Every structure is written in C-alpha cells, then in structure tokens.
# Entry
Amino acid sequence: MSALTVGKWRRQFAAAGLAGLADAARPGRPKAGLELTDAERGQLTQWARRAKSAQALALRARIVLACAGGKENKQVAAELRVSCGSGSRRWPGGGTGSSRSGWTG
# Structure
C-alpha cells in the first residue's frame, strides 16, 4: 500500500466519516447496455432453472440475467461466487452482448 493511498483514505474519512471509506464507482469506459428480448430472457431463465442443464450453461445464464437486471459485475460475481473476470473469458466480446452466439458454447 502506498503513502498516496493512505493519504487519500485519510482525507476521505476526514471529509465524510465512515461513508468516505465506502467503495465508489470507478471512472472509466461506460459498460455497454445489456438488453434482453423476452425470448432471450425466457430461454436464459429456463437454462438457469432446469435440472438437466449443464452447470456451466446454467451459471452463464444466471450471470447474464443478473447483469441484465442492472447489477454491477462485482456484485454479480460476489452473489454467484465467481471471479469478476469470468464474463470476459466466457463470451466473445467480454460478455457485453456483442456476440450472443457464445452463450450456448
């Protein structure tokens, strides 16, 4: 941990108390929106719930459904107990919806 990081946290605590230590959204490129059609949402829900679905396919479906619901990647990863990079490894285009053909593979 650097002295700059310690100084930043100290200033944030002095300015806002405990609320100043909470994680804030990080600056950067905005995420592409993830819009699902009713048919896609229905198919993903079926894959996520069906007992005979392959576990990897069911997990991918749950990830996409959670992301389409507006949750942040870190929140989805924590809830589903996967690493934050899973989406970028599972789908072409980083799981942004730019290449949906990778969902079933």
Observations:
- Residues 88-92, 94-99 have pLDDT under 50 and may be disordered.
